[in-house]
Write a structure and sequence with these properties.
Elements lengths: L7 H6 L14 H9 L9 E6 L3 H9 L7 E5 L1
Parallel strand pairs: 1-2
């Protein structure tokens, strides 16, 4: 991933918001009932599983988007 230039002055003057998309802030309240009702098959989203000792590899897999990763689970 490389750095990008942002037009900060335009963002401030035009009141443009920059929102990250890695996390889903505020979405859990909507999603949990769907998972409970089995309308979302979360098991299908988990593509990689690691032990806690393998955390560096798990993190690298997720950050570098290796092997078609969607969700990584790290078990203690």
């Amino acid at each position: 991933m490389s750095d990008v230039a942002l037009p900060i002055q335009s963002m401030v003057l035009d009141e443009i918001d920059l929102v990250g998309v890695r996390a889903s802030a505020g979405e859990m309240a909507r999603v949990i009932p769907l998972v409970e009702a089995k309308r979302i098959r979360v098991a299908d989203l988990i593509t990689h599983r690691y032990s806690l000792r393998e955390f560096p590899a798990a993190f690298k897999t997720f950050v570098e988007r290796q092997d078609g990763v969607l969700k990584v689970i790290v078990h203690p």
